[in-house]
Design goal:
The chain has about 400 residues and is α/β, with parallel strands linked by helices. The chain has 19 helices and five strands. It folds into three domains: about 170 residues, P-loop containing nucleotide triphosphate hydrolases (Rossmann fold), CATH 3.40.50.300; about 60 residues, Orthogonal Bundle (Helicase, Ruva Protein, domain 3), CATH 1.10.8.60; about 110 residues, Zinc Finger, Delta Prime, domain 3 (Up-down Bundle). Strand 3, helix 6 and strand 4 form a beta-alpha-beta unit.
């Protein structure tokens, strides 16, 4: 039997199976049950979050032989045809390649014929922002007054590129990125159905790499299962998919907090020696500093996003930074990661970044500075010597890093 990729095999068949988009699916389900259908819908959101799948389920719900119903049976000829992608009542158009004015005029002419394979004819225009300006104008009248029992669904990742006149003729639904826990939960369900045992920490690692896209998460799981020999622990997942792990950064964190640039470079060389690319490492470093920032604000955060050992170690390392420092470093690393991503020599830029962090001049927070001044004042008053410090509370804080001359003297 021919193998079906997991993303297709486990594509949701009903509104209730769509993960994380309840704000959208509840409205659509109510519209189907109450017969309050709009003539056109605009689905916007990131890739892989369920826009096209939701449009197909809407078409299935409208044409189910037991409906229209928000809970299509999935067993009748109409439901099976929609699921298989060969229903005459559902026309999917890739606007990226068929969005010209002649293509849209063809859609208008075909829509006027009415439905031949079900109660409703549903047009799904994927990548709708790719419709040409003339094509969009040709579509306006049809969207405003479509033929009876005809519904248009426009799906796009870039709604700002669609004409305002089209926006005004559609009911708009914004699909959101999914959380790592939502993706990991769905991946766990798929693994159970496939009779595959995958540790929760491995699923979390895949879910984080998916970056909010359910489709990407399922595809990554499929890739990992295809390359594994049955054991899919965290080490196997990170090796197969080239993922970064928190422990890749622990030695670097220690070197940075010790302001030891040479040790940081040695730690970087060790990590890259495992085969991890400089670009992937830089992107993972952005998230690592984000995690440190969150844990510095509240050690109880992110407990569900990483294992207990990683959480405890990251919280310990985060305590060695000030919040202001982590804010600055997260922004800095994010900017450098964009440069590294497209650089011809990414490793050189990454090594420069590692040294830059090691040489980073940490801020002294005002409370700490005032405490030092009070200690000096108390010491001066007790000895009857020098008076209080002349530095005012509003003066800029001094650097915690010793200057070059002090370093030379200590050497």
């Amino acid at each position: 039997m021919e193998y079906r990729v997991l993303a297709l095999k486990y594509r949701p068949g009903g509104f209730e199976e769509i993960v994380g988009q309840q704000a959208v699916t509840s409205v659509l389900a109510g519209a189907v049950d109450q017969g309050r259908l709009a003539q056109a819908y605009l689905f916007s959101g990131p890739r892989g979050c369920g826009k096209t799948t939701t449009a197909r389920i809407l078409a299935k719900a409208l044409n189910c032989e037991r409906g229209p119903t928000s809970q299509p049976c999935g067993e009748c000829a109409s439901c099976k045809a929609v699921a298989a992608g060969n229903s005459l009542a559902v026309i999917e158009i890739d606007a990226a390649s068929s969005g010209g004015v002649d293509d849209i005029r063809g859609v208008r002419a075909e829509a006027a014929l009415g439905s031949m394979g079900g109660r409703y004819k549903v047009y799904i225009l994927d990548e709708a922002h790719q419709i040409s300006a003339h094509g969009a104008n040709a579509l306006l009248k049809t969207l405003e007054e479509p033929p009876p029992n005809t519904v248009f669904v426009l799906a796009t990742t870039e709604p700002h590129k669609i004409l305002p006149t089209i926006h005004s003729r559609c009911q708009r639904f914004a699909f959101r990125l999914l959380g790592a826990d939502e993706i990991a939960g769905r991946l766990g369900t798929i693994c159970e159905r496939e009779n595959v045992a995958v540790p929760a920490e491995s699923l979390q690692a895949i879910a984080r790499r998916a970056d909010g896209s359910m489709r990407d998460g399922i595809t990554l799981l499929d890739q990992a299962l295809a390359a594994s020999d049955g054991a899919l622990d965290l080490d196997a997942v990170t090796g197969i998919l080239g993922l970064t792990r928190h422990d890749h950064y622990f030695a670097l964190d220690e070197a940075w907090q010790a302001e030891d640039a040479a040790a940081a470079l040695r730690a970087l060389d060790t990590v890259l020696g495992t085969g991890l690319g400089a670009r992937e490492f830089a992107l993972g470093l952005v998230r690592h500093f984000r995690d440190l920032l969150f844990l510095r604000l509240d050690p109880g955060l992110l407990a569900g996003e990483m294992g207990a050992d990683d959480h405890a170690r990251c919280a310990e390392l985060a305590a060695g930074w000030q919040v202001e420092d982590l804010l600055h470093l997260t922004r800095l690393v994010g900017e450098r990661a964009d440069q590294i991503r497209y650089a011809s020599q990414p490793r050189v830029l990454l090594e420069t970044l590692v040294v830059e962090i090691a040489r980073f001049e940490r801020r002294v927070v005002l409370a700490e500075l005032l405490g030092r001044l009070r200690a000096l004042d108390g010491a001066g008053a007790g000895s009857g010597g020098a008076g209080p410090s002349t530095q005012g509370d509003d003066d800029p804080p001094t650097r915690s890093r010793p200057g070059p001359s002090a370093r030379a003297a200590s050497a």
